[in-house]
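Support request from a user on the community tier.

User writes: "When I paste my structure tokens into the form, the page sometimes reloads and wipes my input. The last time it worked, I copied everything first. Here is what I submitted, just in case something in the input itself triggers the reload:"
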């Protein structure tokens, strides 16, 4: 069973303040990445959210950070 508690807590408490992809813009949306052993919350600014609807950039960042698909 996968633990969602930490990922939801990060999103709801808004610990992640900047975009996961570009790293500089303020986060406006958050979601949960499920392709790691533990679910991870990530955030996106409006520009990164709108320009990459398939989340290829998020996948690349998560693979680089955590080494998983």
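"...and here is what came back when it finally went through:"
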């Amino acid at each position: 069973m996968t633990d969602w508690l930490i990922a939801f807590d990060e999103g709801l408490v808004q610990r992640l303040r900047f975009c996961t992809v570009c790293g500089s813009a303020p986060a406006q949306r958050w979601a949960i990445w499920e392709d790691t052993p533990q679910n991870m919350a990530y955030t996106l600014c409006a520009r990164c959210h709108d320009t990459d609807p398939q989340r290829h950039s998020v996948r690349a960042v998560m693979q680089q950070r955590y080494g998983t698909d």
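Agent notes: The reload is a front-end session timeout and is unrelated to the input. The chain has a mean pLDDT of 81. Helices lie at 5-13, 46-51, 56-66. Escalated to web team.
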